[in-house]
Amino acid sequence: GPLADALEDAAALTGAATHAAWRDGRADVAMHNAMGYLRGFGHTVLAWLWLDVAALAARQLSAGAGDAVLLRGHLTAARYFFAYELPLVQAWLAPVIDASDTFATLDPAVL
User: Fold this and answer.
1) What is the pTM of this model?
2) What is the total count of domains within the chain?
3) Helix axes 68-80, 34-63, angle to 10 degrees
4) Residue 28 lies in a domain
5) Is 107 among the domain residues?
6) Within a domain: residue 104?
7) What is the pLDDT of residues 46-104, one digit of tens each?
8) CA distance 99 to 8
């Protein structure tokens, strides 16, 4: 479904960022872009967990099992995460994929 497709896209971006982080062998660039990488990676993992929660909630709702209000809440929370949080992965990973050296070459005097 659409949530699984969005997770697949985020996982592909995370894989590309992982490869790109060490593509040039520049540890300084990789380390300076680590915060964006960790945020993107973390949100990709959270999306996987929310997809699992949503799938279980949907199965329980279909079976008429469990607290329907709570299960619908789980589905709503998952949809929220995929609509509002998961898209941030692309912005966080773009500098990693592009091997941005903005921070690695920053002159502290300009601060």
Assistant:
1) 0.90
2) 1
3) 150
4) yes
5) no
6) no
7) 999 999 999 999 999 999 999 999 999 999 999 999 999 999 999 999 999 999 989 88
8) 22
And the tokens for 51? 């997809």
Q: Which amino acid is at 52?
A: D
List Cβ neighbours of 13 (8 Å cut-off, separation of 6 or more).
40, 44, 89, 90, 93, 97
CA 25 to CA 111: how far, in whole Å? 28
Phi, psi of 12 (to 5 degrees): -65, -40
What the block records as the tokens of 48 is 């996987």
Cβ atoms 81, 46 nearer than 8 A: yes
Distance CA(101)–CA(75), nearest Å, equals: 40
Q: Contact at 8 Å (CB) between 20 and 97? A: yes
- Tell me if residue 98 falls in helix, strand or coil: coil
